[in-house]
Design brief:
Elements (H helix, E strand, L loop, with lengths): L8 H7 L14 E10 L2 E9 L12 E7 L5 E3 L4 E2 L11 E8 L2 E9 L8 E8 L33 E4 L5 E5 L4 E6 L11 E3 L4 H4 L5 E8 L2 E8 L4 E7 L7 E7 L11 E5 L2 E8 L11 E7 L30 E2 L2 E2 L1 E3 L2 E5 L3 E5 L6 E8 L5 E9 L5 E7 L5 E8 L9 E10 L2 E9 L8 E8 L1
Length: about 450
């Protein structure tokens, strides 16, 4: 079933809005709980996936996915780099999580329901990998924090939403909680606790203003520690600061008000290439709701005194790229600035591919740098079990200049991928490229694996 079909696409096209949209940043599935990490030249964004098949008024989250960018406008789906089925003690829910880098390895702190006898309730676990893209393994074979270790709250889901910050002296701190804010020191191995678990009163107005609900995100800037968190229900986002990470914390204000229809929100704040970014989630995709959420991002600037401006949710998102895309190497079809109608699939042989392609669906790729020499040829790898279709290659808008048409034939089975090429009108400089899909109905036209331009 095509769950992300835009029922109002014609209206949006008439208004010229769809070519400007950048939020939500993932349109091929529902995503939530963004956790950004910068490693070398790349921003890694870890999210939970809200599955569209969730029962009414219930979450269905079985995997964590990774998206990467080097320009903040094009996002590449790296697939489900961790599934809860890989965690022996997990009931199967992929609640909020964060990845940090420490001593050349990558540690993923997750929250999930525990199936261990006597350890029921939400627990916090930690997994480790040599690469930010995994594979991640469970070094403990059990949870790091279990519900019986946190007795200040009486409900079974108070151990949600871990965030970790490693201070300048190398000491790592773990914060988490729902209905109460917990924290503890971590040992140098960052997979064991180095201190008793401390609790911060969620209702302390001096610390949390209107109150702490969940989703802490802790970092340091200019010798000031920041803790962003969700407050109330439905949730708005707020923040507190401290001169010492162990407190006392002081409430500073609201960072993002309650907007749109999702009951929850989850902050992730990071600097990348000299700019500051605020990640969050809402229900802005078609058919979205509190259990089918979508990650978005806004660029912001701290005020001169270090405080946060009040941020609003926008459809526009990031308007200026901080890098360009090289079209003369193989680019995965799941590298997307914005798309309509299509869905991402995990293919066991080819990684992520784009499917559910129908008439007038499209993919936009931004800031594509063709250089002075320019491109005269386009090729793509795709498959079709039905009748195939056409990729229209257009510039700068969905009905922009048509520089070429690539025919995708019937290939027999979805697994039979072929590479086809076509001459295109010469294109130079930095352009936005639209791949607009055409063909018959009602069948899925083809599946799209990768593309490349040539001189």
């Amino acid at each position: 079933m095509k769950v992300l079909r835009w029922n109002i696409i014609v209206v949006l096209l008439c208004l010229g809005l769809i070519s400007q949209a950048q939020n939500p940043i993932v349109q091929t599935m529902y995503t939530a709980d963004p956790a950004p990490l910068v490693h070398k030249d790349t921003l890694f964004l870890y999210v939970g996936r809200d599955e569209a098949e969730a029962p009414k008024n219930h979450y269905l989250m079985r995997e964590y996915r990774l998206f990467t960018t080097t320009d903040m406008v094009n996002w590449t789906d790296r697939g489900a780099v961790l599934r809860t089925s890989q965690i022996s003690w997990s009931v199967g829910d992929a609640s909020a999580a964060q990845v940090i880098e420490c001593n050349g390895k990558f540690y993923w702190y997750i929250s999930t329901m525990n199936n261990t006898p006597g350890k029921g309730g939400v627990s916090i676990g930690v997994l480790v990998a040599d690469s930010p893209a995994g594979p991640f393994k469970d070094p403990l074979g059990k949870a790091l924090v279990t519900n019986d270790m946190t007795t200040q709250a009486k409900h079974a889901w108070d151990d949600l939403d871990p965030t970790v910050y490693i201070d300048d002296d190398g000491q790592a701190y773990l914060f988490w909680g729902n209905g109460i804010c917990y924290w503890a020191k971590l040992n140098p191995d960052v997979i064991s606790l180095a201190s008793p678990i401390q609790a911060i009163n969620a209702k302390d107005k001096d610390v949390f203003g209107p109150g702490f609900t969940e989703a802490p995100w802790v970092y340091k800037r200019n010798d000031v520690y920041y803790m962003h968190y969700a407050s109330g229900f439905p949730e708005s986002l707020h923040y507190s600061t401290a001169k010492n990470i162990q407190g006392p914390w002081s409430y500073q204000g609201e960072a993002m008000p309650l907007e749109k229809g999702s009951n929850t929100n989850h902050p992730g704040v990071i600097d990348y290439k000299g700019k500051s970014y605020f990640f969050y989630h809402n229900d802005a995709l078609p058919n979205g709701h509190s259990y089918a959420r979508s990650v978005a991002v806004e660029e912001f600037q701290y005020l001169p005194d270090g405080k946060m401006p009040l941020l609003k949710m926008t459809d526009k998102g990031i308007t200026k790229a901080v890098g360009v895309l090289n079209p003369y190497t193989v680019v995965q079809a799941e590298t997307i600035a914005f798309a309509e109608g299509v869905t991402a699939y995990d293919d066991k042989d080819r990684g992520v591919v784009i499917g559910e392609i129908h008439q007038n669906d499209y993919i936009k790729v931004r800031a594509v740098d063709f250089g002075e020499k320019g491109a005269t040829k386009f090729k793509a790898t795709a498959s079709s079990r039905y009748h195939g279709g056409t990729i229209e290659i257009r510039l700068n808008k969905i009905d922009g200049e048509l520089i070429g048409n690539l025919q995708i034939p019937y290939t027999g089975e979805w697994s039979n991928y072929v590479t086809k090429s076509v001459e295109v009108k010469k294109i130079t400089g930095v352009q936005d490229v639209y791949f607009v899909f055409k063909g018959g109905s009602p069948h899925e036209l083809f599946r799209f694996d990768s593309w490349e331009f040539q001189h």
